[in-house]
Amino acid sequence: MVKSFFGANYREVEIGEIVTLARNEPLTLECGVKVSNFPLAFQTYGTLNAKRNNAILVCHALTGDQYLCGTHPVTGKSGWWDRMVGAGKPIDTNRFFVICSNVIGSCLGSFGPKETDPATGKPYGLSFPFITVTDMVKAQALLLDHFGIEKLFAVIGGSMGGMQVLEWATRYPERLHAAAPIATATRQSAQNIAFHEIGRQAIMADPDWCDGEYVAQHKYPAKGLAVARMAAHVTYLSQEMLQEKFGRNLQDREDYTYGFDADFKVESYLRHQGANFVDRFDANSYLYLTRAASYFDLTQGGKIKLTDVFAGTKVRYCVVSFSSDWLYSSVESRNLVRALNAVAANVSFTEINCDKGHDSFLLDVPEFDSVITGFIQGSASLYGVD
Amino acid sequence: MVKSFFGANYREVEIGEIVTLARNEPLTLECGVKVSNFPLAFQTYGTLNAKRNNAILVCHALTGDQYLCGTHPVTGKSGWWDRMVGAGKPIDTNRFFVICSNVIGSCLGSFGPKETDPATGKPYGLSFPFITVTDMVKAQALLLDHFGIEKLFAVIGGSMGGMQVLEWATRYPERLHAAAPIATATRQSAQNIAFHEIGRQAIMADPDWCDGEYVAQHKYPAKGLAVARMAAHVTYLSQEMLQEKFGRNLQDREDYTYGFDADFKVESYLRHQGANFVDRFDANSYLYLTRAASYFDLTQGGKIKLTDVFAGTKVRYCVVSFSSDWLYSSVESRNLVRALNAVAANVSFTEINCDKGHDSFLLDVPEFDSVITGFIQGSASLYGVD
User: Cβ contacts (< 8 Å) between A235 and chain B: which residues?
Assistant: First the structure.
């Protein structure tokens, strides 16, 4: 039982498995801070085979977590990739051992700003060290060491999860056979840096944020976090989908009320998204994780050519983008594929025609399922997974 | 001298000309409220000719105002359309009498929530009646009556200004010869309704908003309004322009600071946009005007067909969109043009290739200048302007 803080109230939430990592040797974060004995929360699905060659690491997006399928302990709903991961599903737990860990910086049991700092006995808050996508991946590598898995069959993830996939494939190319970066980019764009800055400013503008010390002060920046989520949520959907799903439909009324209530269905929907998010996510984690995503750049600010990043890679790549995704558009995926092609990497690229926007990778898109199924089946027979 | 409230301080700001309208007969707003003796602030440029047929009404966008050119009394900068309006410019003040008024609901001298309610001696705040684009245009029509102008040569405007143009052309078709709706739509889309809702929620989340009574309480929701502006500002620019102008460039530093400062230039730029806006715009006006834009729909919620709205029109239309504008995309303009074509209206349509996003109509885009120049010259010779 892990006591966790979600939303405006403390709630006792049972987080699944948690392992303490960096017990012998500290992990040096990119910001220079060394951390030891930090917790990493994870879930596994399926069984590791005798050859230890059937492990798939799934990397979650910004506000995702380790609960791929089954019931989520905080929301009571299904895990975020329930339709992709499970027995007989594209990532088939009858055949593969699937691991997903909560990234460091997040708030579902892993080392993050809402965890208690052993040095003070209080939550870290803003004394939490800054983490990057590289640091997230280094922590995941320690988790694999814990499992005794030398090499993953595949690493798969969308959005910020896709950044982790790219980081895995370029930092530990010998530790994975195949990589599926989905709806992602080799670096955060200016527009996406801007969107994240807006979210952070919305949180920090809330006086109940208390300069990050809201837990100690028994407050919670619910309004600011809700605005941040609303602003982000619009970017996850396409203009077409919003128009088709909501249009100008009114919410339980016949006419405008000439007021600031949620007259339109889309306004009501957004408010609902904001309110739900506040109940399941930590505001400081949102600050740290958006920062980590903004810092992501495989070329390290242009110091390294993108082709040099991938030079000589033996990893099999399956790059996927969605036509209506304007947050991590197909242009970004094409840039990635161009660099991979330039170094003669083994890469397939599919742009899926779909009007559901960035969130397509989380939604019911049969063509996406079949791309992932095909990629896994083909790569697995090549790799010799039983 | 009009005492006006801008930002966190009262400042004495000289607003140009202000006329009191609806002196004999009240104006009935769409929300049902009747208003009398309300102020409308305006500027004029050039001279009305003897035939009274050279008047051009320019309609401003959401946070624009009556200052087209010359020095703006609040910001000290040039007016918002200085490059389009003036002697020898596309909207040539040597030939035309150009009028621009501050829309009702706004905050630069016209009837708006920060003005004093004569009944209470206090600012209206949220007791201000809800206004619509129709109401804005009805107020402008009263201004024309005041000038004794029966028929305008042209009405021109972009974004929410373009909505006013469409409202003019369909509500008072006999009162204008030509109409140029630019970077606009016949109704606010679901996505744009959503963006505006985010802005309002950001303002209303700020405790210094004081349920709209911030003036009386000597407060100002500066943080919330800044977040609202930042969120809106990103939508005014294109992804390409942001990438080209800012990319991942750092702000006066060599490397990441691993902190929440504005490490990236684009973050610094956005914060600057937010801070500047707070000094020149009233938070409650922002609420009311975004509401008005969201309510805009020429089809009245589908009660009227778009083609019926335009049926029999004699107005000459010049529709302009910009290829990288994703807020009011070319798709919206094409829908408008399709309806106009279906009723055999006189319409030209230009989609200008330009990477500057929605704000293109405010920026240096020579092709746009030449489209407006051509439209005005051609229409004026047809209309018989000397």
Answer: none
Mutate: best of A246, A260, A287, A299, partner B, most B CBs <10 A:
A260
What does the DSSP assignment read for B71-97?
B-TTT-SB-TTTTTEETTSSEETTT-E
Q: A168-182, A339-353, B4-18, B208-222: which has the minimum mean pLDDT?
A: B4-18
With CA atoms as reference, report the closest residue to A229 among A196, A204, A262, A206.
Answer: A196
Which range marks the domain in which residue A24 is found?
A: 2-187+300-383
Please tell me the predicted confidence (pLDDT) of residue A11. Answer: 66
Q: Which residue has the higher pLDDT, A172 or A12?
A: A172
Strands, DSSP E only, in A8-125?
9-13, 17-21, 27-28, 34-35, 38-45, 55-59, 85-86, 91-92, 97-101, 116-117, 122-123
Is A379 labeled as catalytic in the residue annotation? no
Judgement on whether residues B184 and B221 belong to the same structural domain of the protein: no
Distance CA B319, CA B334 (A): 9
CB B306 within 8 A of CB B337: no
Task: Report how many Cβ contacts below 8 Å link chain A to chain B.
Answer: 152
CA of B114: how far to CAs of B83, B120, B128, B345, in Å?
30, 13, 9, 41
Q: Are A67 and A167 in the same domain?
A: yes
Same domain, A173 and A234: no
Give the pLDDT of residue B1: 47
C-alpha to C-alpha distance for A221 and B314, rounded to whole angstroms: 55
Distance from CA of A366 to the nearest CA of B (A): 26
> Which of A205, A248, A294 comes nearest B206 by C-beta?
A205
Closest to B79 (Cα-Cα) out of B93, B59, B65: B65
Collect all residues of chain B within an 8 Å Cβ-Cβ radius of residue A207.
Answer: 207
Are residue B181 and residue B308 in the same domain, yes or no? yes
Q: CA-CA distance, A311 to B111, in Å (whole number)?
A: 65
DSSP calls for A283-315: HHHHHHHHHHHHH-BTTTTTTS-HHHHHTT--P
Given pLDDT bands bounded at 50, 70 and 90, which one contains residue A4? low
Please indicate, yes or no, whether residues B269 and B377 belong to a single structural domain of this protein: no
B360 shares contact with chain A (CB less than 8 Å): no
How is residue B246 annotated by DSSP? T
Shortest CA distance to A74 belongs to which of A155, A3, A25? A3
The shortest CB-CB distance from B266 to any of A194, A274, A301 is to A194
Collapsed DSSP state (helix, strand, coil) of residue B24: coil
pLDDT per position as a tens digit, A292-309: 999 999 999 999 999 999
User: What is the interface pTM, i.e. ipTM, of the complex?
Assistant: 0.96
Q: Annotate B109-132 with three-state secondary structure.
A: CCCCCCCEECCCCEECHHHCCCCC
Chain A interface includes B246 (CB < 8 A) = yes
Contacts of B384 (CB under 8 A, 6+ apart): B51, B53
- Enumerate residue ranges in chain B where pLDDT < 70: 1-11
Same domain as B14, residue B103: yes
pLDDT in tens, A57-94: 999 999 999 999 999 988 889 999 999 999 999 999 99
- Number of C-beta neighbours around residue A267 at 10 A: 25
Query: Is-contact B336 B345, C-beta < 8 A?
Result: no
